[in-house]
Design a protein that fits this description.
It contains 18 helices and 28 strands. By secondary structure, the protein is of the alpha+beta class. The strands form 7 sheets. An 8-stranded mixed β-sheet has the order 11-15-16-23-20-19-17-18. Strands 1, 2, 3, 7 and 8 form a 5-stranded antiparallel β-sheet that branches. Strand 24 (487-491), helix 15 (497-512) and strand 25 form a beta-alpha-beta unit.
Length: 587
């Protein structure tokens, strides 16, 4: 999907369309006052104070109609320069503009006029309002002035604008597709998870079917890791502030952590990540070089105080569960262990049919002395080591300055999801810093104490975000092995005791084969129950009648298909069980 902010021509056009919207709003609401109207990746928005007015969908339609009139008038958009004093005089009755002007340096200030509307703006803009005619207002919401919850709630209206109607139509079709794929919509339809402000924003709760998926993901990745020599542990969700001062998170990550808690003279925090706990597990006893690598894994509950505006279902929350692990290695083992991590990532991506991704070598920004641990020699060693390993492994990557963890460089695997912007799904981080902070050692072959190197790695990232990604990629049509309900059984005569008994027999045979099956024996109409099963995206939907009962067969329909297939019960059970065991992706 196009990024309006990064495309210079679209940026200018959408900036101008924001002014067109403000002009139309001013005509409909003469007392309206405007804060800012920037271009963002998704188009443009304008924050406005409409007094006690709260915009409805009908109001948005009226604004669009008025915008079309403004565009049709074809007024030239004229840039003018005025002094700061004149600007303050011009907008003296608008506290929002006065606030903006006061923060500007003394000197000339630019304003833009288009017919009966004038606004403070640095520009640039298109030449004429008629160039903004291919637009659409896509959503509206409330937004605190300056993003501060103590300030007034303004009305925020989002829109998009394109040079041609064809481009606009294509973009709107993409938006509709994105809505259909939004994991929050799918999660509600499939009854997977819920959020409630009484519990807290960013704190999703997994419902039975959602937790089934979560549990399958946990079992899947843990089994893979155990086969590769990982040792799984369980550590607490809190730690003392002293723990995070030792690790450096308190200095470098405090603003993303929940507030500290004072209990019996000690200060605790909810943990934002698990590395300090795993460092302490390693430090629990002496180690020899013969034991390394030691791979400590955990499906760990973590808490980060994300800004409310960034929260998004289970993709980004304040509580999440990381598929985390820390590998304690000798310097000579770095290459082999990074190679094994990369191989595991590729193996997992193959299982989930993930093909649209890229590799990034995330490096520190040397100029940022606040974000990163200050040790140039350590950074040069770590960055060169990881770069050399990637080159030796033949992994194609781009270098991203300023994206490293505060303690070391990273190999990030970024995916392009079906909805929204690219984000990191998997990561492997090289760390020379924390082992020194925690005084970790091992006895080398020469009998001397050495400091291990630590690889921080997450394959699924967080289980929550990974689930959101898979839901959006598949539109909720999960592979059979991952589906919360794999088979739904119906009979076409609920009042027939013999047919009901056969439906129970089919249900029991599938349960015995470890198939997640539901028998819907409600006295609802069959068509209603079938539509409900389709909405829940259940892979196999069975309808049993007297023919199936008499011949010991089942008739099934795959989700999204119209064709029905009849096979022997034993054959069906065997087929479904095999497809689950082999994690067959496409039925």
């Amino acid at each position: 999907m196009v990024n309006f902010k990064e495309n210079e021509a679209l940026n200018t056009l959408n900036h101008s369309c924001a002014h067109l919207m403000a002009q139309a709003v001013k005509r409909l609401y003469p007392n309206a006052k405007f804060w800012v109207g920037p271009v963002v990746a998704e188009g443009f928005y304008y924050d406005m104070d409409l007094g006690d007015e709260v915009l409805s969908d009908e109001d948005i339609a009226k604004i669009e109609k008025e915008m079309k009139k403004c565009a049709k008038e074809g007024k030239y958009i004229v840039r003018k320069e005025i002094s700061k004093a004149d600007a303050l005089e011009m907008f003296k009755n608008d506290e929002y503009k006065v606030d903006l002007i006061q923060d500007l340096e003394d000197g000339m200030i630019t304003i833009y006029e288009q017919g009966d509307f004038t606004d403070l703006c640095r520009g640039p803009h298109v030449e004429n309002t008629k160039l903004c005619k291919n637009f659409k207002l896509v959503k509206h919401s409330g937004a605190y002035w300056k993003g501060n919850a103590e300030n007034k709630v303004l009305q925020r209206v989002y829109g998009v604008c394109f040079p041609t109607p064809e481009e606009l139509e294509a973009h709107l079709a993409e938006l509709e597709e994105a809505k259909a794929r939004d994991h929050r919509k799918i999660g509600k339809e499939m009854q997977l998870f819920m959020v409630d402000d009484l519990i807290g924003r960013g704190l999703p709760m997994f419902l039975p079917k959602g937790y089934t998926i979560w549990n399958q993901l946990e079992t899947y990745i843990r089994d893979k890791e155990i086969k590769l020599g990982y040792q799984h542990v369980l550590t607490p969700c809190v730690g003392t502030v002293d723990l995070y001062k030792t690790s450096g998170h308190w200095d470098h990550y405090k603003e993303n952590m929940f507030p500290a808690m004072e209990v019996e003279g000690e200060t605790f925090v909810l943990r934002p990540m698990n590395c300090p706990h795993h460092m302490m597990i390693y430090a629990n006893k002496p180690h020899s070089y013969k034991e390394l690598p030691i791979r400590i894994g955990e499906i760990a509950h973590d808490f980060r105080f994300e800004a409310s505006g960034t929260l998004k279902g289970i993709e980004r929350g304040r509580h999440f569960c990381q598929n985390d692990a820390h590998l304690f290695v000798t310097p000579e083992q770095i290459k082999d262990e990074v190679a094994k991590v990369v191989a595991l990532i590729k193996d997992v991506y193959k299982d989930f049919n993930i093909t649209d991704y890229r590799c990034c070598l995330s490096l520190r920004d040397p100029a940022d002395t606040k974000k990163y641990h200050q040790d140039d020699e350590m950074w040069n060693t770590a960055e060169n080591a990881l770069r050399d390993v990637l080159n030796e492994l033949g992994i194609e990557y781009t270098e991203e300055i300023g994206e490293a963890a505060f303690y070391g460089p990273k190999l990030d695997i970024n995916v392009k999801p079906a909805v929204g912007n690219e984000y990191t799904l998997s990561t492997c981080q090289l760390d020379f810093c924390l082992p020194m902070k925690f005084n970790l050692t091992y006895i080398d072959a020469d009998g001397l104490k050495k400091t291990p190197v630590v690889l921080h790695r997450a394959i699924l990232g967080s289980l929550d975000r990974f689930m959101a990604y898979i839901l959006e990629e598949t539109k909720g049509n999960l592979p059979l092995w991952l589906a919360p309900v794999q088979v739904k059984v119906h009979n076409d005569k609920n009042d027939d005791p013999e047919l009901s008994a056969y439906a129970e027999e089919v249900n029991d045979a599938l349960w015995a084969a470890n198939v997640r099956v539901e028998y819907d024996d409600r006295s609802e109409k069959l068509g209603y129950k079938m539509r409900e099963a389709q909405m829940q995206k259940i892979p196999y939907i069975l309808v049993l009648g007297n023919n199936e009962k008499d011949s010991k067969t089942v008739t099934y329909r795959l989700h999204g298909q119209q064709e029905s297939v009849t096979v022997a019960l034993d054959e069906f059970v065997k087929k479904v069980a095999e497809d689950i065991a082999t994690k067959k992706y496409d039925l």
